[in-house]
Amino acid sequence: MNALHTPIQKPDRNEMPKLLNKYVHGLLLKIAAAFNAPFDQATQAVYLEAFNNLDDQSADQMYNYAIRNWSNPSQMPTIKFLLEATTRTTVRGKQQWLLVVEIFRQWHPDTGISPEAPKLHAAGDYAFRLIGGVRGLAASKIDHEGFIRDRFLEAYRRFHEEGGEQTHFTQQFSERLLKQLQQARSMQLTAGEGSASSI
To answer: How far is CA 170 from CA 115, 137, 152, 158, in A?
Structure first.
């Protein structure tokens, strides 16, 4: 009879998950510290319930997004805000991949890309160049499409994680290369003028 009347124990909301994801927990603590936000054990338990199954890559993405975009000091970013960080880049990356496929359909080796082809964002453009562009896709086997797509999505994610630094590097590299080519060209012209005047 006593067994039937034993009160059911409710889970303690303050209790940390049994299989604690220490990496995610560490990043959440760093976010709280960065914004000087109160983050007591009960709140930590709630956040870990939402994020405990995140892989390290998605957790890094969440952390970088929060550090760059959260604008309320002394407040912990909301779970909704952090969840958006873990899904937004992936969803946009997949949308950009679909545009890549459409661009490839509107490409011909003799005439190039059709003017009506869709345009990619900076991150999509960077990831597309990294997989070799249309020529890279044309040279690949159809069986490898999944692998190429994964490489594209990884490059797309990395672009956002690093805040688009690749674009600045590419621009600086291009400017430096152009300057070197201009200097080499002027040296050739100067050398050509000297040999012509000695004749």
So the answer is: 24, 22, 18, 15
